[in-house]
Amino acid sequence: MFDAFRNGTPVEVWQALVQEAYERTGRRLDESSESYLVFVLLRYQADNQLLSHAQGVDWLHALELVGRARADALRDVGDQCLLVAGLFPGLAERRRVSVDYFITIGRSAYQGVADVTRQAYAALYEQLACSYRELVHTLNAMRDLPQTYGTIVIRH
Asked: Which helix (H) or strand (E) holds 152?
């Protein structure tokens, strides 16, 4: 696994980090949730604005949209809340809210995606909403891993 950290592609590095988190916690995600988590980590790995979003406000704005725009905006809110709750829980403290605030908004956002998308996507986002705390727990375990792996850097 160390070889994947040093020489792997970003996908391989994130997958190895998730696997390492499983070894630390003894708890595994199902394959769909694991794949989605790796996708979210890849998608946001270079987002310098992630921590500047006001997810609660973004969630309210997303609820005003319709169709695909609503689903995409809610997905973004759910993803961002997941990363904040799992990798950057100190942000909640600085904003004077609890980590559960981000978990609640994120779960609601994913459930909102499930409510407005086609059946296959709906099932995935329903599952993600139900396993949201497990996703956060996996990310929390990743925070305890060494900071740098090849080209991937986890910043707290």
From this structure: strand 152-153
